[in-house]
Amino acid sequence: MTSETSVKLRWLKEPAGMPVGTTWGIPWKEGELSREEPLVLQRMDNGECLPVQSWPTAYWPDGSVKWSAHASVVTNEPDVNYRITKGKTVPSSNKVTVLELDDRIILDTGVIKCHLSKQGDKLIHSIVRDGTQICDGGELVCIKESSSIVSGVRTIREESFGFRIHKAVVEQSGPVRAVVKIEGKHRSESGTRQWLPITLRLYVYAGMETIRMIHSFHFDGNPNEDFIKGLGIAFSIPMRGPLYNRHVRFAGDSGFFSESPKTLHTRRTQGKYRELYERQTSGEEVNFDLEKDSYFLGLLDDSAVWDDFKLVQHSSEHYRITKRTSEPCVWLKAGEGRRAGGVGYAGSEGGGLAAALHHFWEKHPSGLQIQGTTSKAAVFTIWFWSPDSEPMDLRHYDTKTHVDSSYEGADELRATPYGVANTNEVTLWCTSSTPSPSVLEQMREQCESPSLLVCEPEYYYDTRAFGLWSLPDRSTPAKAHLEDQLDGIVTFYQAEVEQRKWYGFWDFGDFMHSYDPVRHVWNYDLGGCAWQNAELVPNMWLWISFLRSGREDLFRLAEAMTRHTSEVDVYHFGEYAGLGSRHNVVHWGCGCKEARIAMAGLHRYYYYLTADERIGDLMDAVKDADYATVNLDPMRAYFPKDEHPTHIRIGPDWAAFSSNWMSRWERFEDTFYRDKIKVGIDSVKGTKYRLLAGPTYGYDPTTGKLTSLGVDNWGRHLMICMGAPQVWFELSAMLKDAEWDEMMAEFGVYYNMPQEEKDLITNGEILHSSFHHPVLSVAIVAFGAYYRKDEAAARRAWDILFVNPFAKVNLQDDAVDVTYVDSLKEIDWINTNEAAQWSLNTIISLDLIADWMPHHKEEENR
């Protein structure tokens, strides 16, 4: 990196207006940045240098930095952009300090001190601001429900679980950002059972009052017996001063529920008392003269005292706010709405705690509950799963499989949630006073779209971040037409998420697979045609769409899918650890458990753009996923047990492994996994027709060797539609293996040749019928055409793309009005497999073979 080099940064979305701590990632060309070179963050408007904490997250083979991560505290001013440039880091006037003791870890931002426990059941021991205790305890909570029916009487039993810390580790210790990782399990308060492994990370930034928390829980119960009734995190908040100076806030659809346990509202609240009431409602502290205001104070003494408050988001379309005076009394409805903002506050004189649950309404049933506001300490619980809803039911939808009728993947019923996970994000603000409505609104905006700095699309493209893809280009009618189609497909799916209500704790982030035009509904109940579960890599489609456009809405769509597919669709421990579940009615329902669903290649976009440690953990957890195929051979239905430990396809199985190994190699410079990639490639080089052969091999994970099982033993389309081209194109830049590049090019050019041309190369030993679904092949075909300068292959690729319905149909104009349970817009032939693959392959073709585009095609399509 030269001293003149700088990387321009901009906000992903117009900032909320409050200071924030933020972390982001930047890619670099090979050799451009050495790991020893310091970097500085500058404002572009006035050149002011800001403190920044930087660290490498990936390396090139020459040892230079491939991706870096950066943390800073910025003021979130509109119309202010930044840049990272070479230079000495500026010291911060505020620094995060971390003090680790035998029993606790103390995080000091200069504004707050947070005491974390290293053992026991209390997660947070205390949070102090300016000598005032804002929180005197934080703990994870869980409720398990069981029921029984005897003599026609149904008995429901609820069992409460606290939390037991097993391990606490400081991962970063400043000066700008500190991170602590805590692991443990929920433990019964009435017995000895421990279950539901938890990973929790806490983030603090220098000079900030905020604490960011990433909470991941893993299911290790019996779905037929263990029904989770409630799951959340609870904080004890000291309450000081008279009841009328204590405050509760909940964000609604656009406004805020703003009340006190002792409201100043009486039937005599007039004149100056009306003014005091307005000040109270806005969060200001009010005072009375005991003598002059004695009559009004008497009225207050006589008025009701409200102790408990809660907001429950029952579905994506409804929430309710209620309050009560005491436990024996009714919960009184205070308000209802559609989609709550996910922000709550409880506090009194001297401050309090505001909390925001990201994706609050999208991941219903969620809740905010504040209890005991009239006591010395209130309890503020953020419910990831509200106990005011039905208990969590993780059972399968049937007791048998439906392979032939419903496209389920295997005869064995392996529909278990044991080992799946779910991650949620909470932000805390430790305030010195009750937040004003404008500050609460900024909190809501920050909750809805956390502030993030990103690079310009042109910079991502120039560094070849994540391999081969194109920038939008409307310079010709044909290119403009394809860009319109690409935009239209994404727009269609954004609308489908909303009109089909693809929301919920276990579902949000995923798309559905294929469509039933008779019922006017996606195949929610048809075996392998329901939830997509990363089939044909829609994750990659969405991330590449963001990279080339810089659009915030596409980032959030891809982010939600990444959070879902990396957690819910994947097994994190147990028999299937390292594998994921193929598409099904229930996310973990299919008997096919495969490495491609869990592969690091799907999730590394989010990791490198945000430096999210949870995703980093999940990427590393699958580095040895190939060993899982010994216990569950992915080709067991077609290749009997033999001398090989297992059988795999070069794609999607080995391609998934190679994405895991590439990620391990670049992140940790672990050459063991680089060498494992090379062993596999050398095995394929040694076969009769190299990458054209197979695609199924005998495989030994201990050596990484692939053993040929014949030159034509399975269809080739699955080789290249599950992310293999995207992974291999980027891997090519790291390996610099000319023969590997030639093998990929050869495969691409060969794929769509007619049989007679194939026979000239492979002597009639490989059938054209083994090369299905040409639209899935176009990315690798485009690479082959580009690499070999093969115009015929390029024109075949464009013919395939332009004849496809996704190139011809305007999804917005052609959608028809239908009625399901309500009025809908419908495209009756839609399927997510082809939407994702056509889009990805078109984007890559526009980069590699645009010069061979037949420009008359767009007129035919119109």
Number of domain modules: 4
Q: What is the CATH class designation of the largest domain? A: Mainly Alpha
Taking pLDDT < 50 over at least 5 consecutive residues as the criterion, the unreliable ranges are 857-862
- Count of DSSP H/I helices: 24
The amount of helix comes to 25-40%
Number of strands: 38
Q: What radius of gyration results from the CA coordinates? A: 29 Å
Quote the average pLDDT: 96
**Main sheet properties:** 16 strands, antiparallel
Strand content: 25-35%
Task: Give the overall form.
Answer: globular
Strand order of the largest sheet: 20-19-24-25-28-17-16-15-14-13-18-27-26-21-22-23
Q: In the CATH hierarchy, what is the architecture of the largest domain at level 2?
A: Alpha/alpha barrel
**SSE-based structural type:** alpha+beta
Give the N-to-C terminal Cα separation.
Answer: 47 Å
State the CATH topology of the largest domain: Glycosyltransferase
Structure description:
The chain contains 24 helices and 38 strands. The strands form eight sheets. A 16-stranded antiparallel sheet has the order 20-19-24-25-28-17-16-15-14-13-18-27-26-21-22-23, with helices on one face. Strands 4-3-7-1-29 form a five-stranded antiparallel sheet. The radius of gyration is 29 Å and the shape is globular. The C terminus is likely disordered. A hairpin with a 2-residue loop joins strand 24 and strand 25.
Summary tags:
globular, Beta-galactosidase, Chain A, domain 5, single chain, 862 residues, 4 domains, alpha+beta, 16-stranded antiparallel sheet, Immunoglobulin-like, 5-stranded antiparallel sheet, disordered C terminus
